[in-house]
C-alpha cells in the first residue's frame, strides 16, 4: 500500500506518521511519500518521520520529494494538508477582516473565503494529476476550508472525502468523561465543516442509548469551557456546538478578544520555528509534546481510520466525514457537502439518516451553504463581483458596506495568488 501526503513538510506530519506507525495493523502502509516544495522543511520532517518508524518497528519505507507527479504516481490514497501562502497568508486572513469589525479567522468569514480562493485552484490541479496517475486513488482532504475544498473536488468528479478532527476530539473527550472506550461512543454529529452540533451521544452505535442529557447534566461545565461558550447556553440548546460556533454565537466578544492579543497565526509561526529546530535533532525519534499545542489533535487516528475503510482494510464502520448531502438534510441541495456520520467502505461514504433539525440549526446551515455555493463560484471563476456576493451572503458579514470593503482588502492581500486579479 502506497500513501502520499501532499504538504508533507508540514509540522503536523509527525502526528500523522506516529499514527501510521502505531496503527499499522489497521492500515499496513508499505510506502509513505511526503511531498512538499519546501525542501528544507521536508528534509527535517522526513528525517524525524523515518526515526519514528524505526523506533516503533515499522518496516515501511518513507520517501521525500518535491516532485508532485513522482510522489503521487501509483498511490492508493493521497492526503492533502497544504496551506497556499503559508503562515504569512494566514496572518493576513486573521488580521485585515478585523479592520471592518468582522471575525479574522482562516476558515470562517472573510479570511476563510480568502483561503478558499487561494486553495481551490491548487487542489483541483493536484487532483487532476492524481486522476491521471491512478483514477482509483482516494483523495482525503484535510485542507481548510474542508467543506468548500471537498465540494470542489466532488463537483469535478474526483474520488474524495473531507476530514476534520473536531468530531474525533469530541468523541475522545466524551469517552473519557463517560469512562467508555472511544469506539463505543457514537456521535450524532450534524452540520457543515466548522459549523456542527452534537445532537446526541450514543453508546454502542447509532441505535444505542443517548447519553447526551447525562453528559450535559454531569459535565456541562467542563464541556462549556472546552467550546468556550456559557454553560447556560448549552443547557438551553440541549446540544453541544463545536467551538467554531463561538464565532456566530459570540461574534462581537470574539472580535474584541482578537483585537487585543497576538493572532493565532503568529503563535503558530513561533511554534513551528521551535518544532522544526526539534525535528532537526537526530536524537529525537518521537513526536514532541509541543506538537499537541499546534492543533490537529487525533488527526492521525481519524486519517488512519478513514483510509483503512476506503481502502478495504478495516477501519470503523461509521465515521464523521465531509461528503455529498444526497437528501440527508432535505433543506439543502443534493450536491451540498455536509459533515455527518456515514457508513464508510471501499465504495465511499454513505451518510446515515439524520432526524429533522431544529430551525435554529437548519437555518444557519442553509445560510452558510448558500455562502459556500457563492464562495466556490468565486474560487472557480474569479471576479470582484463574485467575491462581493459571497461576502454579502455570509451571516457574519451581511452588510454591503462591509462586503465592499472586505472585497477590496481580500483582493489586495491575495493578488499574487489570484490569477484573475
TrEMBL record:
GO terms, molecular function: hydrolase activity, hydrolyzing O-glycosyl compounds; metal ion binding; oxidoreductase activity, acting on the CH-OH group of donors, NAD or NADP as acceptor
Cofactor binding note from Swiss-Prot or TrEMBL: Binds 1 NAD(+) per subunit.
Domain (Glycosyl hydrolase family 4 C-terminal): residue spans on this chain: 190-397
Pfam families linked: Glyco_hydro_4 (PF02056), Glyco_hydro_4C (PF11975)
Cofactor: NAD(+)
Keyword Metal-binding on entry: yes
SUPFAM superfamilies: LDH C-terminal domain-like, NAD(P)-binding Rossmann-fold domains
InterPro entries, alphabetized: Glyco_hydro_4, Glyco_hydro_4_C, Lactate_DH/Glyco_Ohase_4_C, NAD(P)-bd_dom_sf
Sites where the protein binds Mn(2+): 164, 194
Keywords: Cobalt, Glycosidase, Hydrolase, Iron, Manganese, Metal-binding, NAD, Nickel
Keyword match Manganese: yes
Family recorded in the similarity comment: Belongs to the glycosyl hydrolase 4 family.
Protein name: 6-phospho-beta-glucosidase
Organism: Streptomyces corchorusii (Streptomyces chibaensis)
Lineage, highest ranks first: Bacteria, Bacillati, Actinomycetota, Actinomycetes, Kitasatosporales
Amino acid at each position: 500500500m502506497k500513501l502520499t501526503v501532499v504538504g508533507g513538510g508540514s509540522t503536523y506530519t509527525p502526528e500523522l506518521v506516529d499514527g501510521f506507525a502505531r496503527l499499522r495493523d489497521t492500515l499496513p502502509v508499505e510506502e509513505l511519500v511526503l511531498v512538499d516544495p519546501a525542501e528544507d522543511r521536508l528534509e527535517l520532517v522526513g528525517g524525524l518521520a523515518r526515526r519514528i518508524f524505526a523506533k516503533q518497528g515499522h518496516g515501511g519505507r518513507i520517501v521525500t520529494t518535491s516532485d508532485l507527479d513522482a510522489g503521487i504516481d501509483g498511490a492508493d490514497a493521497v492526503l492533502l494538508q497544504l496551506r497556499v501562502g503559508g503562515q504569512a497568508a494566514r496572518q493576513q486572513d486573521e488580521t485585515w477582516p478585523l479592520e471592518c469589525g468582522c471575525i479574522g479567522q482562516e476558515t470562517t468569514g472573510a479570511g476563510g473565503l480568502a483561503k478558499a480562493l487561494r486553495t481551490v485552484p491548487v487542489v483541483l490541479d493536484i487532483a487532476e494529476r492524481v486522476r491521471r496517475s491512478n483514477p482509483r486513488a482516494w483523495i482525503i482532504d484535510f485542507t481548510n476550508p474542508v467543506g468548500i475544498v471537498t465540494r470542489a473536488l466532488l463537483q469535478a468528479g474526483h474520488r474524495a472525502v473531507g476530514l476534520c478532527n473536531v468530531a474525533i476530539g469530541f468523541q475522545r473527550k466524551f469517552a473519557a468523561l463517560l469512562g467508555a472506550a472511544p469506539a463505543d461512543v457514537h456521535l450524532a454529529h450534524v452540520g457543515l465543516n466548522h459549523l456542527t452540533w452534537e445532537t446526541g451521544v450514543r453508546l454502542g452505535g447509532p441505535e444505542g442509548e443517548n447519553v447526551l442529557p447525562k453528559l450535559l447534566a454531569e459535565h456541562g461545565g467542563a464541556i462549556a469551557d472546552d467550546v468556550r461558550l456559557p454553560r447556560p447556553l448549552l443547557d438551553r440548546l440541549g446540544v453541544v456546538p463545536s467551538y467554531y460556533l463561538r464565532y456566530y454565537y459570540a461574534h462581537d466578544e470574539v472580535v474584541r478578544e482578537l483585537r487585543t492579543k497576538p493572532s493565532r497565526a503568529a503563535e503558530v509561526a513561533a511554534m513551528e520555528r521551535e518544532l522544526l529546530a526539534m525535528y532537526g535533532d537526530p536524537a529525537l525519534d518521537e513526536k514532541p509534546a509541543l506538537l499537541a499545542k499546534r492543533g490537529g489533535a487525533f488527526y492521525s487516528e481519524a486519517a488512519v481510520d478513514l483510509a483503512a475503510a476506503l481502502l478495504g482494510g478495516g477501519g470503523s464502520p461509521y465515521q464523521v466525514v465531509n461528503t455529498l448531502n444526497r437528501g440527508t438534510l432535505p433543506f439543502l441541495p443534493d450536491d451540498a457537502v455536509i459533515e455527518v456520520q456515514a457508513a464508510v467502505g471501499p465504495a465511499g461514504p454513505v451518510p446515515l439518516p439524520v432526524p429533522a433539525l431544529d430551525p435554529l440549526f437548519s437555518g444557519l446551515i442553509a445560510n452558510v451553504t448558500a455562502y459556500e455555493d457563492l464562495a466556490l463560484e468565486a474560487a472557480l471563476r474569479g471576479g470582484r463581483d463574485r467575491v462581493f456576493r459571497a461576502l454579502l451572503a455570509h451571516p457574519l458579514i451581511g452588510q454591503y458596506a462591509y462586503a465592499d470593503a472586505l472585497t477590496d482588502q481580500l483582493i489586495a492581500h491575495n493578488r499574487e495568488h489570484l490569477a484573475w486579479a
